[in-house]
Amino acid sequence: AQNISNESEKNGMDVAEYGKHQKSLRDGGLSIENPRRQHQQDEVLVYKLQLAGMHMELPVGSRCMLVGANGAGKTTLISVLGGKHKVDESAVRVLGRPAFEDTTLCAEIALLTGNWTHTVNFVGHNVPYQAMEVSKLIEANSVGVDPERVERLVKLLEVNTKWNLTEVSDGQRRRVQILCKLVKPFKVLLLDEITTDLDLLARQDLLSFLREESEQNGVTILYCTHIFDGLDGWASHIAYVSKGEMIFAKPVSELDDRLVVSSDQAARGWGTLFCAVQRWLLDARPDFESLLKLAAPRVSYTPPGVTSGGDAPAVKLTDFTWRYKNSSAPQLDGISFEIPRGARCMLIGANGAGKTTLLKILGGKNMVPEGQVQCLGYNAFHDLELNKLVALLSGDWTRQVACVGNGVPFQADFSVGFMAENFAESLVRDGMDYEYVRSRMNRLVSLLDMDLEWRLHQVSDGQRRRAQLLLKLLRPSQLLLMDEVTTDLDVISRQALLQFLREECEERGATVVYSTHILDGLDDWPSHVLYLRGGKVNYCGELSGAPAAKTTHQLASSGSLFTRVKSWLISEREDRSQAALDVKCDATPPTTAAMATPPPPLPAKPAPAPVASSFASRFDRFGGASRQTNMYG
User: Fold this and answer.
1) Which residues are CB-neighbours of 502 under 8 A, at least 6 positions away?
2) Strand pairing category for 63-67 and 220-224
3) pTM of the full predicted structure?
4) Quick count: other Cβ atoms within 10 Å of Cβ 25?
């Protein structure tokens, strides 16, 4: 599928020399060689290479994992292979044909990205598709497809055909996107971060399906991801990109020396692939290793009003039930639990368990009865003191636009630095120490590897997520509610952020409630676990006291936490399947009693139907009246 080799001293080449680079291509699969250019050679004002001197080849039927840091060029590479950029006709070939010029490849290549959006005038780009019925989307995309394949994917992805895209969550929208893209069989699948919103079991089921497509149907798969839970043994090839260069692209069988796991990492139960990728990224960015161990700012700060709550827990819910309008079942059903202050609590559950709903309610986004939901001793939604004590960070940093819908990203033409500086000044005006605010902002900018010159209307989704994290974490809140905020971050950026959150809890006594489906390297991070199952609390307490994984569910994983959570979700799925089989029906009377009861009288024989006319009514232009008479006569 792809061929990549680095060239020595390419940085010293001029544009003309680079264009004369000798090509070596092979037919079949995917192949790419030479960089992508932003402008024509004779028109270039600023010549910038997104992909530099790449040469890579994958055989038909291979499963290649594309890994690298944020901004390495992975998405650009996938877009080039998907025919989204015009390149040298002989440089990039898919199935032996030019990726951009041969438009017939559209029927043989499926490109799935993290965004399923479109551009709306006067609103911006990346606006999610809305107001569409899922059943009609499936019907439109499955013309000529085997119904058994459609039914299997609907069941595999647990898609409800009665959904409407206006009402579903991001995870449900992602499932519909994957279904619509995979419902037709393709020869090449280009997958760019498509599993971020799926829970563990849904992700594992999808990867098993993709493996079957590769082994049985010869489908070539290029899968770009930052999530390595349970992926050991899935890929046949691994390609590592760094700063637009292909470091290597080889079969897994030839990477034994690069996939070595240290003894301390093996003792923690971390997966081989996760440990290897983390080491590759740290080798390319040695400064991040020191950032992971950097001490928190020494200047201390006590948020106002935190002591007024006394010894109240950070979060307390008492017999709380919540349902959305027109919902047949409650999203949260009679839940009661407490989370102590200073805890690092992981919020666990399958898609649709009620995690996002719970975090929004704790963040004051919905009106709730007084006394049932308390944060830091205050009543959620009602007490305005919580505005400065609680920070809610969700996967979406969006707004609602009339006549368009919700989920529209912020795309204003101003820099991240402008936003951060203005917010920092407002914190100082509110009485916060200037040196503390500056040191905190510098620490976050370093951890998130940010450029303050980024402009929101030009950045990628990952960069926009970093801007959100910077602005939300700049204020030292006492309760941090985080809902899938690390999905766009690479391995070491995610680890650095989690290290920062650990310091927040240990140094300031803050409390973190972190909802995620990514469990790479998290075995020793949480102190507490909150497991929601179908809108009910299944377990809430310290991690050490959480239910252990069942012996039958001890599968290869990325760590003990992954194994434990996967076991819970498997048990939950098994219980749902059993409940679906336990259908109540009326008791059957004994045979003797049935024989003693006389049979009911036979119904009277209906009168013969009138003879049908040989001509349909003149008001029935399709002959319906005639057909009905003949059918029922």
Assistant:
1) 344, 525
2) parallel
3) 0.77
4) 15
Phi (first) and psi of residue 372, to 5 degrees: -85, -30
Closest CA to 106 of 79, 83, 140, 78: 83
Q: What is the mean pLDDT of each run of 10 residues along the chain (633 residues)?
A: 37 42 51 52 48 83 93 88 87 90 91 73 63 86 92 90 78 85 94 87 92 95 91 93 90 91 75 90 81 52 46 92 83 94 94 90 93 94 93 70 53 79 92 92 88 78 82 93 88 89 91 92 90 94 86 55 90 82 58 52 54 38 36 36
Q: How far apart are CA 321 and CA 338, in angstroms?
A: 16
How high is the pLDDT of residue 575? 86
What are phi and psi for residue 238, nearest 5 degrees?
Answer: -135, 130
| 8 A C-beta contact, residue 541 and residue 346 | no
Give Cα separations from 611 to 344, 404, 623, 627 (angstroms).
80, 57, 16, 12
185/515 Cα distance (integer angstroms): 34
Residue-level length of the chain: 633
DSSP one-letter code for 39:
S
Which phi and psi angles does 561 have, rounded to 5°? -65, -45
Residue identified by tokens 């994917």 is 153
Instruction: State the Cα angle at 295 between 293 and 301, rounded to 5°.
Output: 150
CB 362 within 8 A of CB 347: no
**CATH number of this structure's domain 327-577:** 3.40.50.300
Q: Using CA of residue 55, residue 493, residue 128, residue 354, what is the dihedral sign?
A: positive
**Paired residues of 541 in beta bridges:** 529
Q: Which two tokens stand for residue 564?
A: 């434990």
Give strand ranges (E) for 403-452.
405-409
The predicted pLDDT at position 502 comes to 92
The helix/strand/coil state of 345 is strand
Pairing outcome for strands 373-375 and 315-322: antiparallel
pLDDT number for residue 308 = 45
- Identify the DSSP state of 120: E
Distances (CA, A) of 2 to 92, 200, 320, 462, 508: 9, 29, 54, 25, 49
For residues 235 and 61, is the Cβ–Cβ distance under 8 A?
A: no
Query: Cα(172)–Cα(163) distance, rounded to whole angstroms?
Result: 9
